[in-house]
Amino acid sequence: MIDEQNWYARFLELIMGLEAELGIEFTDDDFPAPFVTWRHLLTLTKERCGRSVLEEDIIIVVAKLSFRPVNFIRNELDQAIS
What's this model's pTM, rounded to 2 decimal places? Predict the structure, then answer.
């Protein structure tokens, strides 16, 4: 239970950071599963940003906010965010 709470707290920080940095807003319905893949997060973020932000720029922001290298995000696209 503590691991899940820690994960959720870090995930919320990441989501709020993306919203602030990119000027977008997510809804509760965007993340129905308890664990989300990097690809799902990137896809939703791209949808919210529209054409104004390139996918590569989103990956860079996600990497920065999650304290992960860009290559880690690229290599782990279909893995749950941890």
Answer: 0.86
